[in-house]
Design goal:
32% strand, globular, OB fold (Dihydrolipoamide Acetyltransferase, E2P), 10 strands
C-alpha cells in the first residue's frame, strides 16, 4: 500500500548508491532511507492505519496478535519506536526503515521543484534534512515474515541540522566573494629583480650575459622572474 510522507526527517540515506547489509558482500545490495516521523502526527496515523489494513488483508484473523508480536522488532517491523533507540534525534519519533533492491533501480530523488532530479553531487538530500517521501508498505510471509517498506521516491523539502557523518551544509552568506574580476595578473609588471619580458625572444642565447640577483640563486639553480634555468 502506497503511503506519502510529508516533511519528515531523513536518516541513513543510501539514495544514489546501493549498499550491502553491514558490509556483508553475500547480501544483496540495496538502496535505502530511514524516516523519523513525529508520534501522533498525520504521517504517523497514516502509517499505522496502512500497516493494520495490509496485515488484516494478508494475515486475516491473526493480524492483531501477529503485529503485536512483531512490534519494535527491527527484523520483523519496518516501523519502530524511536524512544527505544539511542540519540536525541529519535526522541518522540517513530522510525520507518525503507529499502529498495538494486535490481529495482534507484529511487526517484527530486528537489523542491519536482521536475529537477537530484544526484549525489548535489549534496542533498542528506541525513538530518527534511523530505517528502513515498513508500510502499507490504506484508512479507514465508521464511522471513514481517512488515516491509519499499522506498519509491524522495523529495528534498528543507534544510535541517545534519546528523553526524552527513555532509556539512554551507549557507549562501557563510563566506564573502573573494574573487576580483578586475584583478590583473602582475607577473610581468616591472620589477628590478626580474628580467624584462623584452628579453624573452632571445632568452636562451643571452643567459651568460644576465646578471642574476644573489637572492635568486639557490643550490646551483638560477631563478629569474619566476622562471628557473641551469647553466
Amino acid at each position: 500500500m502506497k503511503v506519502k510522507l510529508k516533511n519528515v526527517r531523513l536518516s541513513y540515506p543510501h539514495l544514489f548508491t546501493p549498499t550491502t547489509f553491514q558490509g556483508d558482500e553475500r547480501s544483496n545490495a540495496r538502496f535505502g532511507a530511514t524516516f523519523l516521523v513525529k508520534k501522533g502526527s498525520a504521517d504517523d496515523k497514516a502509517i499505522r492505519a496502512a500497516i493494520k489494513e495490509i496485515a488484516v488483508e494478508k494475515l486475516k484473523n491473526k493480524a492483531e496478535v501477529t503485529l503485536r508480536s512483531w512490534e519494535n522488532s527491527s527484523q520483523k517491523m519496518c516501523y519502530t519506536d524511536g524512544d527505544l533507540k539511542d540519540g536525541e534525534q529519535y526522541e518522540g519519533m517513530m522510525v520507518l526503515a525503507s529499502h529498495r533492491g538494486e535490481s529495482q533501480g534507484a529511487p526517484v530523488v527530486v528537489d523542491r521543484d519536482p521536475t529537477i532530479r537530484l544526484t549525489e553531487k548535489d549534496g542533498k538530500p542528506y541525513a538530518g534534512c527534511y523530505v517528502n517521501a513515498t513508500v510502499d508498505l507490504w506484508v512479507q510471509t514465508g521464511m522471513y515474515t514481517g512488515v516491509r517498506a519499499t522506498l519509491i521516491a524522495v523529495q528534498f523539502a528543507a534544510d535541517g541540522t545534519a546528523f553526524a557523518g552527513a555532509p556539512a551544509v554551507v549557507a549562501d552568506d557563510d563566506f564573502e566573494d573573494l574573487s576580483d574580476p578586475d584583478e590583473e595578473d602582475d607577473f610581468f609588471q616591472e620589477d628590478p629583480n626580474r628580467v624584462s619580458n623584452t628579453l624573452l625572444p632571445g632568452w636562451f642565447s643571452n643567459l651568460a650575459n644576465i646578471v642574476v640577483p644573489r637572492n635568486y640563486i639557490d643550490d646551483g639553480v638560477r631563478k629569474t622572474g619566476g622562471l628557473k634555468y641551469t647553466r
